[in-house]
Design brief:
Distance between the termini: 22 Å
Helix content: 25-40%
Order of helices and strands: EHEHEHEHEH
Radius of gyration: 14 Å
Strand content: 15-25%
Length: 129
């Protein structure tokens, strides 16, 4: 059985570094593909642009930030969940936003889980676990 990748959509380099380190601490074996906004994530999913030569197939899950340039997480989520090729990919919103409207909108659009990023690195390790 092939181990499928995780698509991590995040624009903050520090958050990327900390999350990747937390995944490493938990011995995650899935390859993690990092894209920096919704547009790049769509290109990855659709095998377009710099991802046109990647091996086809959907990631096992998408970790999705909320606030990003060009296309934010909620806009990407709405596109993914309307597309029959991608709508069954589990999406976890991993964000620093504690605003209830973001939470409600995420669930309305079909997010599988909404997780507020912890400030402490060791809390992040526990979250990834």
């Amino acid at each position: 059985m092939q181990i499928r990748s995780i698509l991590y959509v995040e624009d903050n380099p520090l958050d990327i570094e900390l999350t990747m380190e937390a995944m490493k601490e938990n011995n995650l074996v899935n390859p993690v593909i990092v894209t920096n906004d919704g547009i790049e994530a769509l290109e990855y999913l659709r095998c377009e642009g710099k991802y046109e030569k990647r091996k086809t197939g959907n990631p096992s899950m998408i970790l999705l930030d909320l606030k990003m340039p060009r296309m934010d997480g909620l806009e990407l989520l709405s596109i993914i969940k309307l597309d029959p090729k991608f709508k069954r990919i589990p999406v976890v919103m991993l964000t620093s936003s504690r605003e209830e409207k973001d939470l409600v909108k995420g669930y309305d659009l079909g997010v599988n889980a909404y997780v507020v990023k912890p400030v402490d690195f060791f809390d992040l390790i526990d979250l990834v676990k």
